[in-house]
Amino acid sequence: METLHQSMLVVHILSGAAALIGGALAMTARKGGGTHRIAGRVFFFGMLGVSFTAVPMTLIHPSTFLLLIAGFSLYQVLNGERALRNKAQRPQWKDWTITGLGAISGVAMLTTGNVVLMVFGGIAAVNVTVDLRTYVSVLRGRRVPGNTWLRKHIGHMMGGYIAASTAFLVQNASGLGPWWLVWLAPTFIGVPLLVMWTRRFTRRPPAVTAQNG
Predict the structure, then answer these.
(1) pLDDT for res 2
(2) Domain assignment of residue 63, given as a range
(3) What mean pLDDT is predicted for residues 89-105?
(4) Burial of residue 112, with CB atoms counted within 10 A of its CB: 0-12 exposed, 13-18 middle, 19 or more buried
């Protein structure tokens, strides 16, 4: 079992490095350009590798923090990727499954009593609420902002990057200062960037009636 854990750890570290580098390149590249798309794919698949290796690792060496961060991260990047595939936001079984994952990880985080996990749990709760409100509006044929998918893509991919950065700092930089400051630093930095980019790239959206796309 220890050999399996070490093997998973190697894949986990390599995937995490790919995600952090790919995410940084995607954020700094011209949005929608070739570099952004390629770096975004590297980030996405890196995050999948991180999340899926975390599960067997926590079964061998239990870590509630790692497991819940992995679930939260997986919800974020799957939702962000799904937004590109389902721009009309008409929910299908994939969307309900992803939102369910977000709800489960969010509730679990909120019940831990850990400050950092509770912050992420609160974020997940807000995200899930927005998901459900959007899906209900679409199913009822209500008009939704035409850039809803873009807001979702930016918000969730950034959320995944913040989670990955937090996990990295928890494992490698906890001794650099007060634990809560080190752990929440990616959130303190990432949220203002998220707000700025969302405003810049989704300004003055047209209202459209939701339809398949």
Answers:
(1) 80
(2) 2-209
(3) 96
(4) middle
